[in-house]
Write a structure and sequence with these properties.
The structure holds two protein chains of two kinds.
Chain A lengths: L12 H15 L3 E5 L9 H6 L4 E3 L4 H13 L3 E7 H7 L1 H10 L5 E5 L17 H6 L5 E3 L4 H13 L4 E5 L20 E4 L4 E5 L4 H13 L4 E5 L2 E3 L3 H11 L2 E8 L4 H12 L4 E6 L9 H7 L4 H12 L2
Parallel strand pairs in A: 1-2, 1-3, 3-4, 4-6, 5-6, 8-9, 8-11, 11-12
Antiparallel strand pairs in A: 5-10, 7-9
Chain B lengths: L18 H10 L15 H26 L4 H18 L14 E4 L5 H10 L40 H14 L6 E6 L6 H12 L5 E7 L8 H5 L4 H7 L3 E6 L3 H8 L9 E6 L22 H10 L4
Parallel strand pairs in B: 1-2, 2-3, 3-5, 4-5
Helix pairs in contact in B: 1-2, 1-10, 2-3, 2-4, 2-10, 3-4, 3-9, 5-6
Classes of the chains: A alpha/beta, B alpha/beta.
């Protein structure tokens, strides 16, 4: 098991999200929040206290929520839709496709507590399909930040970008994984550790176990590169191709279905540009059982041990 | 106003029109003049006459467009053209040079399958080059079978899947309210479309937020694609339902231009959005199309176009 390469103080990225949204709202009167009775679950209580008129609660009505956000954008606002990712992306998928992406409305979709954050609540509340669904929609940027700082930077970028953006905002405690002074760039991977034998590409809550796995692989004499890939769409094709060319094997790690999400995106790129062995760490094509988020990550071996094994399989040793 | 062409650049020949359809259009005189928006100073009688003749000319152009494209939704377009003409030829505070003005009025056509009627109306209002109408649904045309705001000036939202327009209109009106603006938002809905639950989510939200500058207009033609609405999933009593949802509900003859004008220019009721049930007839006023479910998206042949145009010869 890992000795740990990351700071172990755990943070809820929703705190960084909420603080950043307040900062943006103070600076720009166009910024509004749109929720489906999800003030508490989005940690927007303080936002509501400060900007009561700019916290629009449509009630438990996700289709209306995204449509209203599109209309607010049409009216010159910059709406941040904040709702549990499972309901936002599934119930309002056609509104995301048509009202946000196809219409090119300037609205931001912030999927709270994605992946298996609501582990015990079961597959209805898991959001492991969201990346596959949303990655299939043209003109939509899809971002999966890994820690509070990257969440804050991604939200600031989304506010400045004139078009539809989806950002996953994790509730599961995560350590700071990016170095001091890290600058998030949409569409760009971040090199967190260099290596020559295999590349681990991860995002979101599972960048930390990827770093731990690289540490463990080094003990086995395998030098792993770790790329953080916060932007699933558009993918940093250059970084993926360079990883394939320079390290010869790739492992993807995500808190999502491996079909269609980060793993799918990386595999599509590798196959077309520089075929090398690729292994996927994530949830296979099943509904996850009930269990805590941490238990589920271990259950699906989205863990340092699982990543080490996947790397060894990719390398054939 | 004469039935013949007044000024119709580009309506007689383009690379994408078929010889047959162009011949039909030419022979029948379906060219569409730019009528423009008539100002309130003209007086009610002149405004109503302007809208009435505009609606007739829009129908003539629309049926030729549908025949030419070999696709379209003539029934639901003819039922809603009087509403669209009333809005674009007078009610809406918009103009070609102000389509990006934050203070413009908005119209969202939620029943996006009536795109042909919308395009012809935008052209009549001077918001879209009439020459573009010849490209309706041709390859790479900006005039898609359902409207695209990125390609067509004056289109506020991309619609087509039903149940999207009313939530968007609620958001647009809410933005206006947050800005303290008096600009108005209109959304035109089909009646069958109200079977989509998202509309009822938005009806609640519109009333909850007291969006008095929001007006929803339902094209109550009582037919949907496959059958009568009442036989499919009945809406009645629609007026009572919408009143119960907190809207100020009005009913109007959706083909009476004077009545539409009066309803759509009324001062809003304080604190309540307005819901207008425009009673219409699908395919109106063409005798063989009227109230006939077969004409939801049937494409008229040349003889049927000629017969329809004959009925649309005079105001």
């Amino acid at each position: 098991m890992s000795t740990g390469t990351t700071d172990q103080v755990l943070h809820d990225c929703r705190d960084a999200y909420a603080a950043t949204l307040i900062e943006l709202a103070q600076a720009d009167p166009r910024v509004v929040a749109v929720v489906n009775d999800s003030v508490g679950s989005s940690k927007l209580g303080e936002f509501r206290n400060r900007f009561p008129d700019r916290l629009i609660n449509v009630g438990i009505a996700e289709q209306d929520m995204v449509g209203v956000a599109a209309g607010l954008a049409n009216g010159g606002k910059i709406p941040f839709v904040s709702a549990a990712s499972c309901f936002l992306t599934a119930r309002a998928l056609e509104q995301i496709k048509v009202d946000a992406a196809y219409s090119n409305h300037n609205l931001k979709l912030c999927g709270m507590s994605p992946g298996m954050a609501y582990g015990e609540l079961g597959p209805t509340h898991h959001s492991i399909e969201d990346l596959a669904w949303l990655r299939a929609i043209p003109n939509l940027t899809v971002i999966v930040p890994s820690d509070p700082d990257e969440t804050a930077q991604a939200i600031r970028w989304a506010a400045s970008h004139p078009g539809p953006v989806f950002v996953r905002v994790s509730r599961m405690g995560v350590p700071e994984v990016n170095p001091t002074g890290y600058r998030f760039e949409a569409g760009r991977a971040a090199l967190l550790r260099d290596g020559t034998d295999v590349t681990i590409i991860a995002n979101g809550t599972v960048v930390a176990p990827a770093l731990d796995a690289a540490h463990d692989l080094a003990d086995l004499g395998i030098q792993a590169r770790v790329l953080s890939m916060p932007t699933v769409k558009p993918l940093d094709v250059d970084a993926v191709v360079a990883a394939a060319r320079e390290t010869g094997a790739i492992v993807t790690v995500e808190e999502a279905l491996t079909t269609g999400g980060l793993g799918g995106a990386v595999a599509e790129t590798v196959v077309q540009h520089h075929p090398v062995p690729v292994r996927f760490v994530g949830v296979p094509d099943v509904f996850a059982p009930t269990g805590s988020a941490r238990w589920l990550l271990e259950h699906f071996r989205i863990s340092p041990g699982g990543i080490v094994d996947a790397a060894r399989l990719a390398l054939g040793r | 106003m004469s039935a013949g062409p007044i000024a119709a650049p580009g309506t007689t020949s383009t690379a994408t029109s078929t010889a047959t359809s162009t011949a039909v259009a030419d022979a029948a005189g379906t060219s569409l003049p730019v009528l423009g928006r008539i100002d309130v100073e003209a007086g009610r009688e002149a405004i109503v006459a302007h809208i009435r003749d505009g609606a007739r000319l829009i129908r003539r152009r629309d049926i030729a467009m549908i025949h030419s494209a070999g696709l379209g939704h003539v029934g639901g377009e003819f039922s809603v053209i009087d509403v669209l003409a009333t809005l674009y030829l007078h009610v809406l505070d918009i103009s070609a040079d102000r389509l990006d003005d934050p203070e413009r009025d908005r119209l969202i056509l939620s029943k996006g399958h009536a795109a042909g009627a919308l395009y012809a109306t935008l052209a009549a209002a001077g918001l879209l080059d009439p020459a573009a109408l010849d490209t309706f649904m041709q390859p790479l045309s900006k005039l898609n079978g359902h409207p695209d705001r990125k390609k067509v000036p004056g289109v506020e939202a991309n619609t087509g899947p039903l149940g999207h327009g009313l939530p968007i209109a609620v958001g647009t009106a809410l933005a206006g309210k947050l800005d303290g603006s008096r600009r108005r938002t209109f959304v035109v809905l089909g009646d069958g479309e109200l079977q989509e639950g998202s509309n009822w989510e938005a009806l609640m939200a519109g009333a909850h937020h007291r969006l008095e500058h929001l007006t929803a207009i339902v094209d109550r033609n009582r037919l949907q694609q496959g059958a009568r609405v009442a036989e499919t999933n009945d809406l009645e009593s629609l007026a009572e339902k919408t009143r119960a949802f907190g809207w100020h509900t009005l009913e109007v003859d959706g083909h009476d231009h004077g009545a539409l004008l009066d309803v759509l220019t009324r001062t809003p009721v304080a604190g309540k959005p307005t819901f207008v049930i425009a009673h219409t007839v699908k395919g109106h006023p063409v005798s063989f199309m009227s109230d006939n479910v077969a004409w939801h998206h049937k494409v008229p042949d040349a003889d049927q176009v000629a017969a329809a145009l004959a009925e649309l010869e005079t105001p």
